[in-house]
Fold this sequence. Notes:
This protein is of the alpha/beta class and about 600 residues long. Helix content is about 25%, strand content about 15%. The chain has helices at about 10-25, 35-45, 50-60, 80-90, 140-145, 155-165, 200-210, 230-235, 245-260, 290-300, 300-315, 320-340, 390-400, 495-500, 515-525; strands at about 65, 70-75, 145-150, 170-175, 215-220, 240, 265-270, 270-280, 350-355, 360-365, 380, 405-420, 425-430, 450-460, 480-485, 490-495. Strands 5-4-3-6-7-8-9-10 form an 8-stranded mixed β-sheet, sandwiched between helices. Strands 11, 12, 13, 14, 15 and 16 form a 6-stranded mixed β-sheet that branches. It has a two-stranded antiparallel sheet with strand order 1-2. A hairpin with a 4-residue loop joins β9 (about 350-355) and β10. α1 (about 10-25) crosses α3 (about 50-60), α6 runs parallel beside α7 (about 200-210) and α6 (about 155-165) crosses α12 (about 320-340). It starts with 10 loop residues before the first helix and ends in an 84-residue tail after the last helix. The relative contact order is 0.09. One zinc ion binds next to loops.
Amino acid sequence: MKIQKISHKSLAETAAGKLAASLLDGTLEQGGQLPPERELINILGISRATLREALKSLEDHRLIESRRHVGWFARKIDETNITQAKELAGDATSQAPRSATNEPHTGPRRIPVSPEKPIHIPNLQKDRLGTFEFISWWEREKVQKAKVLVIGAGALGNEVIKNLALMGVGNIFVIDFDKIEAANLSRSVLFRETDNNRSKAEVVAARAKSINPEVHIQYLNADVTTGLGLGVFRRMDAIIGCLDNREARLAVNRFCYWMNKPWVDGAIQELLGLMRVFKPGEGACYECTLTEQALRDLSLRYSCQLLARQNVLLGKVPTTPTIASIIGGMQSQEALKLIHDMTVEPGKVVHFNGLTNMMHTTAYVPREECESHWAYGEITELPARAERTTLQDLLRIAHSDLGAQAVIELDQELITSLECANCHTVEQVLRPLSEITFEAGHCPTCGLLRDAQFTHQITGDENFLHRTLSSVGVPPLHILRAQNGLEYRFYELTGDLPEALHFRHFENNAPEKTQPIAERIRLKSEVHSIDSSTSSVRSRIRIKEDSPKSPAAVKPASGQIKLKQNKIDTVKPKKVSEPTSTRIRYKSIERSNGLISKFGRGRVKVCKL
Ligand SMILES: [Zn+2]
Ligand SMILES: [Zn+2]
């Protein structure tokens, strides 16, 4: 008598059992020919190798026989084989077949499926993500709901975007300021010759949508160091840096730390590449990896900053599409792990040397005094927009929260004037540093590089408080800092949310770039009603967190916000009435990011990038 196996059946055994059961119940005709292999593979949902193993087992049990060049035939069930047939069939009829198209029948076993993951047999003919169902840890819902920010749409960005689209990552945001040129075509799978001079971000987004129309995508033509609101970072599950310069990496690193988000960095040159994950509070960050000299080089004076920006635009690193695939592939995989809350190794770097095919991992040492290690505290969501809100508006809110001492800290330097020491001329400028080119920094008369006056603090004494936030370089959906020397407050321009973060480009319901003024006003005044019974002594407006599509979740104003006409913005001559409040009340949102906010402890931090 055979010894009963205790271990659970292999896939081939299960398949053999099902076929034996079909023989017994007459589904398969005794003496008749079995359906062709391809059909059996589909019926049983198994691979060819597994099917062959199952057929071999049935043959060994004298239940089927092979006729050369014809196929498999079922034997007659009689006393010689009925016991074996029943033994094989077991309870196969009542069991759902465990299938795995791509699973080899030898090699490592699958990790047992987590109890939460429901057993789901995908339709591989209709379900593009069906194969992933066989990956024990893959969770469709997490992947489809995931929000991933891809910074840079060059060689690495192309690979990463392609992978994210293939993997069905539900919401992708891509940012790049560059345009496509012929030389990009050798390393960028998503670009075509006809794309010359088109925006990289737009083209990769469009191609991702055509690879997988089920993903939601949004693109932005902007420089990540100045053009992307922190509120976008705040709503992401993972951030992937596909960058080619230190300045941008440092900026992304700080933004991710401020918002307590993990980010995956990749870098390539010729056949060399590296990949690393940074996670606030776990191991070293990107800035920790920089040498003192590198940090000194980065904290440049304004003239150098102008030049540095220029050089970034010119700097080209030779890369190959192959190394981009390798490193971009690793980055995408790490992002997939982050989406699933799987273990990653933050603060470590994986080096790949394509010349020797050597790969090694090393851990960076975190630096105690690293300037990146700051996290924002609780964030107040204001129904305000960068284009409509003035410095005065924001200052008023800060004053009501932090007292008359409160100042606003801008994230980038604001150039107020350019002075030529040679000609003794002064040009009033008032533009963010990012908008001044190296050429523009020079005197138009004598050509000397002019001295610049700049500021990043708004104290209330300025003569340009009527200027809108966007005119001084604040991007939509940004989060601004105010402080009074003791305490920080963080204000998000949540009124920008519907336009700044929607993931609906290339969809029928993509939001228009410019909305009717009336609608803007309506959106702005949509403020959650104040429930005086809630928490703090000062009643505040509570704006619901998250959900890019849900400005509607914010209820209409309860009349506690006083609207008044605002002055016309002198810089952007748009005649629009703007509702502001003499005293906006709001309720702040509790954030549980697990990090202690150093910003909230009164340490003044100047952020110069
Ligand atoms: Zn650090
Ligand atoms: Zn001059």
